[in-house]
Amino acid sequence: MPANHSTAAFPTTRREFLQASGRGIGLLAFSHFAPAFLVNSAMAATTGPETGRPILVLVQLAGGNDGLNTLVPFEDANYYRLRPTLGLAKDKVLQLSDTVGLHPSCGALHELFHDGKLAVVQNVGYPNPNRSHFRSTEIWETASGSNEFLSEGWIGRYLDNACTGQPADDHDPVGIHISNGVPQSFQSHHDHPTFGLIPGGGNRRENEENRQLLESLVKQQPPENDNAAFLKHTLMDALVTEKKVQRVIGDYRPSASYPSNAFASSLRNVAALIAAGLPTRVYFVSLSGFDTHSNQANQQANLLARLSSGLAAFQEDLEKHRLDGQVMTMTFSEFGRRPSENESRGTDHGTAAPLFVMGSRVKGGLHGTAPSLALAANQDLTFSTDFRSVYATMLDGWMHSSSQAVLGGKFGALPIV
Predict the structure, then answer these.
(1) Closest CA relative to residue 72, chosen from 90, 53, 84
(2) Phi first, then psi: what are they for 393, rounded to 5°?
(3) Are 254 and 268 in contact (CB under 8 A)?
(4) DSSP assignments along 247-277, one per residue
């Protein structure tokens, strides 16, 4: 063990615990170990999650994916007027209808669409859009209005409504993220067991060093107060769950050929955990790099190819394991790009964009209304579908939870599920 780990003191606050255990070790928070200030014991009587219930997999396209070159309006002359070099030729586009088609890198998604397993929701956004990466991501992850600032994420509020009150002998996580940090969408008012993995597995040596650090903290003298006792229990269960998850991932034999990249590996690991029968309700994975201010063409083509092939392998794997009936996968990005290309052959921060919903029980096809491109240079798209309507559809129609309780208002459902 490195010298700087040998004298590590047991963390005395939740922040210190997260800092100590957050680099490559799964993070858990268990409500049944928490002192009174961390949970509301009045919720303890509610039922916990069960295996076999519907599962939602969230795929973040971080950086702001360009919607117009993902779902291409190849019959709109304004599209080519606004994008003289980035506009994709009609004969290259993978047609979904007489007017729109997918980027040529999305061949696998194109097949899923024609098999009825992919819904494409057009022109998704929200009123008074924000073009800051940080703030717009926060809006999408908390399902807030553009002038609201919420501390809990929409998945966290779902867990508060549906998964509070885990049985005391159930240490399995209800939410798992494979990302470089805990997504804001997981933040909740009550504590819930959640777990995190580094995309691609992280650095093995650093992972082992951190695991040894946690083990040394657990073996220290008994804690002197309730806070430290809670944190020590959390560390112990984090280690147990870490070993269980790594064993599941290591033993898994996929029934589909996954591409060799970190994103596909993350989806492969999600499939392994679903196949293991964990009671996890929500999984979160991220694919980054979509902030294409310059030289967008090749960058986005590579990213969309990675997205398309990874999602298709994941769906095939679920189907061959006969798990596809309980899994729905949804993409999101903090914003789209501006309709007009910039001087660097890229696109700048914009507003609305399409998103995908994939699954064997999805009502495939095109949903929503295409954006108007009768715009001047540097004008933005006006959204036609509020992203919270998509969330409401998934909550009510798929997760069997009250969207109004989670989202704090009524949003019209879409015919997706």
Answers:
(1) 90
(2) -60, -45
(3) yes
(4) HHHHH---SS---SSHHHHHHHHHHHHHHTT
Burial tier of 32 (Cβ tally within 10 Å: 0-12, 13-18, 19+): middle
Select from 59, 81, 86 the least CA-distant residue to 337: 86
363's CB contacts (< 8 A; 6+ apart) are 119, 415, 416, 417
Which two tokens mark 415? 């015919």
340 pLDDT more than 50:
yes
Q: What is the CA radius of gyration of the chain?
A: 22
pLDDT in tens, 184-239: 999 999 988 899 998 876 545 555 665 666 666 556 556 566 666 666 666 666 77
- What's the confidence (pLDDT) of residue 243? 81
CATH of 3-407, one of 1.10.1420, 3.20.80, 3.40.720, 1.50.10: 3.40.720
- The tens digit of pLDDT for each residue in 278-289 reads 999 999 999 999
